[in-house]
Amino acid sequence: MEKILILTDQSDTHPTSVINLMKEKSIPFFRLNTEALMVDYSFAWFHFNGMSPDFYIKNLATNQTIWGHEIKSVWYRKPDVPKDFPYTINEEVDRHNALEAKQFFFFLMHYLTDLYSIGNHLYDKRANSKMLQSKI
User: Fold this and answer.
1) Who contacts 19 (Cβ-Cβ below 8 Å, separation ≥6)?
2) I want to staple 57 with a disulfide (CB 3.0 to 4.6 A). Which of 43, 72, 80, 81 is the partner?
3) Which of 42, 2, 43 is nearest to 22 (CA)?
4) How many helices and strands (H and E) does the chain possess?
């Protein structure tokens, strides 16, 4: 089943009306609150001989799952690097875990780059910069 992947954060309420409309019209989607990737979701990458790599992301609260091959398009609403972690150990390990989560997030963003999308993670951050806008 093809789905729309919505990349945003928990505090972003703007997609709610669109999500309600998608539910009414039975349009399959998956909302990923990217800052909570490490606490609210489980995920894994797979690579089987002779096949393209694939992955899944599962929302632990709703049990909703999306596979990479199901993603038809992406709405880059307001993605952010993972910031929430299930536990802390010590400064060095926590820094390593944050770096690993950030690298996974950026790998995922680049993996999705060639899909149809609304917005684009490579350009939207720059376009949202108030400092750059003030130069114009």
Assistant:
1) 6, 29, 31
2) 43
3) 2
4) 5, 7
Identify the bridge partners of residue 95 per DSSP, sorted by sequence position. Answer: none
Nearby residues of 76 by Cβ (< 8 Å), 6 or more positions away = 7, 117, 118, 119, 120, 121, 124
The CA R_g of the chain, rounded to the nearest whole Å, is: 16
Q: In what order do the strands lie in the sheet with 41-46?
A: 41-46, 54-59, 65-67
Q: Give pLDDT, residue 80.
A: 86
**pLDDT per residue as tens digits for the range 52-104:** 888 999 999 999 999 999 999 999 888 888 888 888 899 999 999 999 989 98
What DSSP element (H or E) covers 79?
A: none
| Token duo for residue 60 | 């632990």
pTM given for the model: 0.82
